[in-house]
Amino acid sequence: MEELSTEQKIIAAARSVFTKKGFAGARTRDIAEEAGINLALLNYYFGSKENLFKIVIKEKFEQLFGMISPILSDESVPLGTKIKTLVDNYTKLLKENEELPIFILNELSVNGHIFDELLQYARQISQPVLEKQLKNNGMTLSVPNFIMNIISLTIFPFIAKPLFVSAGLITIENYTDFLNERRDNIPDWIMKLSK
Amino acid sequence: MEELSTEQKIIAAARSVFTKKGFAGARTRDIAEEAGINLALLNYYFGSKENLFKIVIKEKFEQLFGMISPILSDESVPLGTKIKTLVDNYTKLLKENEELPIFILNELSVNGHIFDELLQYARQISQPVLEKQLKNNGMTLSVPNFIMNIISLTIFPFIAKPLFVSAGLITIENYTDFLNERRDNIPDWIMKLSK
DNA sequence: GTCTATAACCTGATAGAC
DNA sequence: GTCTATCAGGTTATAGAC
């Protein structure tokens, strides 16, 4: 077990605080404290709150959306496998990072300008491969709808957790089971509603 | 056209600023300015930023989630009509209030404690009516999955708009058409994947 | 009720010692 | 590199005149 460098300790703390509180709600003091270092040191290494934030948001954005294009664009993988891989990977990722989607999507909505550089170099999803596969499987759905359906059904239940729990629809103890059950069902659902 | 009272002008401005920036990112100065009044007056009427926020968040929460239970609980309405009503109402509401879902869901995640009182009195969704209707329609899906599927497919596309646009999947000009097309398709999709 | 002025506090960032 | 101390600026909230 290796000790983290000071720089890495700060980034780790920044990940934790920023994803929980958002940019505006996070305080550099809290990050410093969680990193076990002094506030001055944070500025020594990263110069400003915004610089540190950009490092974290870039990382998290990539973590959340970086997998879509590689998985969907591979021509040699059958459509059914792609769906299953995407749903499985997201469910695993989000179980371990519950605040991730709401963090990214909220910052995208509130501080969209911070993403300008980031999105400029973002992999654009290539549609022709998927289009062909959908057609070959006798499916009439458009590619954007196909992708939207997968990630809506998979990601939204994580975002809506506090709501569903408080509405009495699912208990907090059963929520993981609920998500696992959905993970196993979504691929079939997607095939059904793509025809 | 009636003039708004000062109190109402402040609330209107608070709605606008809070939903765009979130609690932490919003400044009372901006709210006062947008209301066309002085900062002191805001505190004269509402005492604190948090008090004003509670009024707005309660209103918005109700606007976003208040419709679910009344629509779904009415025993005399056929299942297909319920789905269509829910999807239509949400699409209309969110077209006019794009930041609404991310605002509520983010505050729920970041400042959950503010909702404590609010959720205490929240209508719990009664499941027996829906359960019966699902069964009578030969459907095997559980009620929580049924509700989750409807609101995932309907609400998430609004939240994911900046993402889909920047990924080059849909242009900003075509997004409204995309949402309208989905609104018309989702009821069929829901029926399909509930069997 | 509404304003100006200011208090009280908080937060990001820096100076300077070690 | 790391710390303590502090600055500079911003933000919420209030005092007090009108």
Overview of this protein structure:
The structure is a homodimer of 195-residue chains. In chain A, 75% of the residues lie in helices and 0% in strands. The first copy, chain A, is an all-alpha fold. The first copy, chain A, has two domains: 1-54, Homeodomain-like (Arc Repressor Mutant, subunit A, Orthogonal Bundle); 66-194, Tetracycline Repressor, domain 2 (Orthogonal Bundle), CATH 1.10.357. In chain A, helix 1 runs antiparallel to helix 2, helix 6 packs parallel to helix 10 and helix 10 (143-159) packs antiparallel against helix 12. The radius of gyration of chain A is 19 Å and the shape is globular. The interface between A and B is large, with 51 and 51 residues. The first copy, chain A, binds a DNA duplex (18 and 18 nucleotides) through residues 6, 27-29, 37-45, 47-49.
